[in-house]
Amino acid sequence: MNSGLDVFEAIKKRRSIRAYADEKVSEKDVERLIEAARCAPSAGNIQPWEFVIVKDMETKRKLSDAALNQTFIEKAPVVIVVCADLNRSSRGYGSRGENLYSIQDTAAATENILLAAQELGLATCWVGAFHEKEVAKAVKAPRNLRPVAIVPVGHPAERPAASPKRSVNEIVHYETF
Ligand SMILES: Cc1cc2nc3c(=O)[nH]c(=O)nc-3n(C[C@H](O)[C@H](O)[C@H](O)COP(=O)(O)O)c2cc1C
Predict the structure, then answer these.
(1) 151 C-alpha vs ligand 1 centroid, how far in Å?
(2) 71 touches ligand 1 (CB under 6 Å)
(3) What is the DSSP string of 79-103?
(4) What is the pLDDT along the chain (177 residues), one digit of tens a residue?
(5) Ligand 1 pocket, mutate which of 11, 16, 63, 110 (most atoms under 8 A from CB)
C-alpha cells in the first residue's frame, strides 16, 4: 500500500469500460469514489463540484438518451453525474472561474473517481457527449449547476486493450517549443 506505486498502477491500468456485469456496486464503494473526488485540487480550494448518484432506472434512461443514446450508461448499476457550480467559481474568480476553473476543478474530481474506481476493481467511462439541458433536467439540477461529466460505474464485463497514447517524444518540449 505504501510503496508509492499504487497510483501509477491505477493510472496505467485504467481503461474506459462500456460493458458492465449484472452486479451491484456497494454503498461503501460509492462512498469511496466520492471521497476520492472531494480530495481533488481546485482553484482557491473553492471545490465547485456537486455529484448526483443515480440508481433509478428511469433517470438512468434519461441520461442515456441525453447522451446521444449511449445505452451502456443505463446498464451501469450506478451513474455519477458530475456538476460544476458556476456561481461558486465566478464568486471567487469572475469569468476565469466560471469558464475555466469550474471545468478544470470538476475534471480533476472526475479523474479521481476514475482512478479510485480502478483501484477498487470497478469499471467506469468518462462520458462527455451529452445535451447539457437534458441532463440537468433529468437530475433536477439548479440553474447554476452545469453538468460536466456522466460517469457510469459497474463491475467490468469487458477487458479492453489499452488505447494508444501519444509518445513522450511527441508531446514534451524542453524549455520552449
Ligand atoms: C472529456 C471526455 C469526454 C468523453 N466522452 C465520451 C463519451 O461521450 N462516450 C464514450 O464512450 N467515451 C467518452 N470518453 C472516453 C474516451 O473515449 C476515452 O477516454 C479515450 O478513448 C481513451 O481511452 P481510455 O480511457 O481507455 O484510455 C470521454 C473522455 C473524456 C476525457
Answers:
(1) 10
(2) no
(3) EEEEEEEHHHHHHHHHHHIIIIIHH
(4) 455 568 999 999 999 999 999 999 999 999 999 999 999 999 999 999 999 999 999 999 999 999 999 999 999 999 999 999 999 999 999 999 999 999 999 999 999 999 999 999 999 999 999 999 999 999 999 999 999 999 999 999 999 999 999 999 999 999 999
(5) 16
